[in-house]
Amino acid sequence: MKGIDTCARIPDAQKLKANGLAFVCRYLVPEFYDKRVTAEEAAEILGAGLGLLLCWETSASRARDGAKAGALDGEKARKCAEALDVPESAAIYFAVDYVPPQHDYDAIEYYLRAAGVACGPYGCGIYGPYAVVEEMVRRIPTLYVWQCVGGSGGIVSASADVYQYQWQHGDEAEALAEILGYSVDMNTCEDLQKAGMWLPESKKPWYADDMRWAAERGLIRDGRPNDPLTRAELACVLRRLCEGSEDVFDEDQNRPSGLLSDD
Between β-strands 144-147 and 23-27, what pairing exists: parallel, antiparallel or unpaired? Predict the structure, then answer.
């Protein structure tokens, strides 16, 4: 299946559908970025029966700033997704939009790990060229992968859920841009659901409101909605609720670091 990515807002998603496209890749970023996807645009895309891939990118090499940057970006991305009412079945891809030297790889790994925790319950993905996506998925096997054509030397990763095979100046991209009225890059994806796209039929999980309530109060820090609860974790929850209910629920108090976590 083919799709596009673009910085432009989609004025007529039905035109994409009519030209044989199955999905759109757009930017999930704060409102002061012109390239951000809006709620109205997302509704238009989904209403046309198209999948929507969400990508966080504020600067090309942000990921080399490491874990602290990843935690900040992951939290911001999660809040942007929640504002759009993105279902928890979707993933957020974090851009590594340059060809990083190997000495950047550790920092990129730490960035992605921190972003993945902070953007929970959404899945975490990487956008980038061949070598770095190969290395990151080796280090973090749960990553979603969107590989870009630039810097990849014509090699396609076997782990790529989405592959951007042509930039906007390619023949196919330019022909489509002529029809649409804005520049696009061309992509392909075999399985939109496996790639963590926001799909038209996606529904909010039955537990979504409860998980969000618990996260806002510091009761759950890292999502994991489908993981089993251990007896030790249950004991921790019960004791905190019984002995420190005011600390847990009072918005004016310091919130606990999290009752359920991987610590």
Answer: unpaired
Report domain 2-189's class: alpha beta
Tens of pLDDT, residue by residue over 94-119, are 999 999 999 999 999 999 999 999 99
What are the residue boundaries of the structural domains of the chain, listed by start? 2-189, 208-249
Phi/psi at 12 (nearest 5 deg)?
A: -150, 90
**Residue 91 pairs with which residues in a beta bridge?**
123
Q: Record the pTM.
A: 0.77
Distances (CA, A) of 98 to 56, 149, 153, 227: 14, 11, 13, 35
| pLDDT one-digit tens code per residue, 181-230 | 999 999 999 999 999 999 997 555 556 567 667 766 666 655 555 567 78
First-residue to last-residue Cα distance in the chain: 41
Cβ neighbors of 138 (< 8 A, separation 6 or more) are none
